[in-house]
Amino acid sequence: MTLPSKVRIFEVGARDGLQNEKQMVPADIKVELIERLVDAGITAIETGSFVSPKWVPQMADTTDVMAKLSRQENVTYAVLTPNMKGYEGAIAAKADEIEIFSAASEAFNQKNINCTIAESLERFEPVTEAAKAAGIPYRASISCALGCPFEGDVAVDVVADVSKKLYDMGAYEVSIADTIGVGTPIRTKKVIEAVANVIPLEVIGVHFHDTYGQALANYLAALEMGISRFDSSVAGLGGCPYAPGATGNVATEDVVYMLDGMGVESGIDLKKLVKTAWFISNFLGRPPVSSVARALKNKLN
Ligand SMILES: CC(C)(COP(=O)([O-])OP(=O)([O-])OC[C@H]1O[C@@H](n2cnc3c(N)ncnc32)[C@H](O)[C@@H]1OP(=O)([O-])[O-])[C@@H](O)C(=O)NCCC(=O)NCCSC(=O)C[C@@](C)(O)CC(=O)[O-]
User: Fold this and answer.
1) Rounded to whole angstroms, how far apart are CA atoms 181 and 32?
2) Banded pLDDT at 60 (limits 50, 70, 90)
3) How many domains does the chain have?
4) Is residue 115 annotated as a catalytic residue, yes or no?
5) Distance 148 CA to ligand 1 centre (A)
6) Which positions fall inside the Pyruvate carboxyltransferase domain (predicted)?
């Protein structure tokens, strides 16, 4: 088996990670979190989202966060945008990249962005046209690709169909999201196989929540298939406010530890990353869910 020699980690802690936190996290803490992550070697990072502040109040300060960041040249600062209004916010904040998102479940899409899958794709047409004209790269995410909190099992054909449509709209990456962390390795491989039948394997990314403790095993399954685009969240923060019961994303430090052990390059300094996991966890007043962050806590100097 030949594994990819390198993986691109797309860090989602400051967006997916914090969007579900009940206590408001001040912009300065978000900025420090992002800057520490960049210092640890993260080169692609979601800094927030331009969504309705009524739907996700925690992300209402994304403009402020973007303005306060000391940006590094080699780093992509990305934001999530659900529609043209979000796109305009992203452009005003000088985001390097945007993310459009739909789902493989009608029920979830309604709860999350208040429209059908087809309507969401229509909404993204002007967004992608404007991004193309402005030279802003965009990636796409498909929620509930391995299961839905409302509909249960999701057919792999639906995931493949939505993936193809998003890819045809010009997304440079299509990220398969296990929003509620129900996937297992064989199922993960089946979904990736179905998607890889309709779009190139190189553009497929994975975004797995760890609700059932399967995320790392599923990343390994994806890696074994040649996938080299991983989303993860420092300290295992995260969860979607519109996916009941879902817990955080797989912790970036757990992924990096696994990759280091397998000789797969991520470019990330594990010790700095673990210090960052403790920084945000201390602010939130609870330990990181990451086993690696807890194991290394007293071995950081
Ligand atoms: C999409 C909408 C806005 C539709 O919401 P809607 O109510 O249907 O929108 P609308 O167009 O009818 O507008 C209603 C109000 O929202 C405002 N509005 C409209 N758009 C925006 C915007 N972009 N930014 C700020 N405000 C906005 C608009 O101006 C108006 O304001 P009002 O006149 O009432 O004062 C809403 O459903 C929404 O914001 N949903 C976001 C939900 C969200 O952020 N979910 C979490 C992120 S997705 C996720 O976590 C999954 C992922 C990607 O990580 C992968 C995975 O794990 O599955």
Assistant:
1) 28
2) very high
3) 1
4) no
5) 20
6) 7-274
Tokens at 43, concatenated: 């080169």
User: Hey, how many other C-beta atoms are within 10 angstroms of the C-beta on 116?
Assistant: 14
Ligand 1 neighbourhood includes 276 CB (under 6 angstroms): no
Q: What token pair was written down for 281?
A: 């966890």
In a domain, 3, yes or no: no
- Compute, in angstroms, the gap from residue 287 CA to the centroid of ligand 1: 31
Ligand 1 centre to CA of 104 (Å) is 18
**Joined tokens for residue 180:** 């509620």
Check if 141 has its Cβ closer than 6 Å to any atom of ligand 1: yes
Judge if ipTM > 0.85: yes
* Structural domain that includes position 146: 8-296
Mutation test residue for ligand 1: of 19, 21, 51, 98, the one with most atoms within 8 Å of CB:
51
Q: Indicate which residue of 115, 144, 148, 240 is catalytic.
A: 240
Reported as a single tens digit per residue, the pLDDT across 184-227 is 999 999 999 999 999 999 999 999 999 999 999 999 999 999 99
What is the Rg, in whole angstroms, of the alpha carbon atoms belonging to the chain? 17
Q: Confirm or reject: Cβ of 207 under 6 Å from ligand 1.
A: yes
Spatial separation of the C-alpha atoms in residues 179 and 211, rounded to whole Å: 9
1 belongs to a structural domain: no
**Phi and psi (nearest 5°) for 141?**
-130, 140
Residue found by looking up tokens 């179905």 in the block:
194
Q: What is the dihedral of CA 184, 190, 192, 196, to 10 degrees?
A: 170
Residues constituting the chain: 301
125 assigned to some structural domain: yes
| Of residues 184, 230, 187, 228, the one with CA closest to residue 207 | 230
User: Measured from the CB, is residue 82 less than 6 Å from ligand 1?
Assistant: yes
- pTM listed for this prediction: 0.97
> Residue 112 C-alpha to ligand 1 middle, in angstroms?
8
> Among residues 92, 21, 93, 91, which one has the least CA distance to residue 59?
21
**Distance between CA atoms of 50 and 92, rounded to whole angstroms?**
11
CATH number of the domain at 173, please. Answer: 3.20.20.70
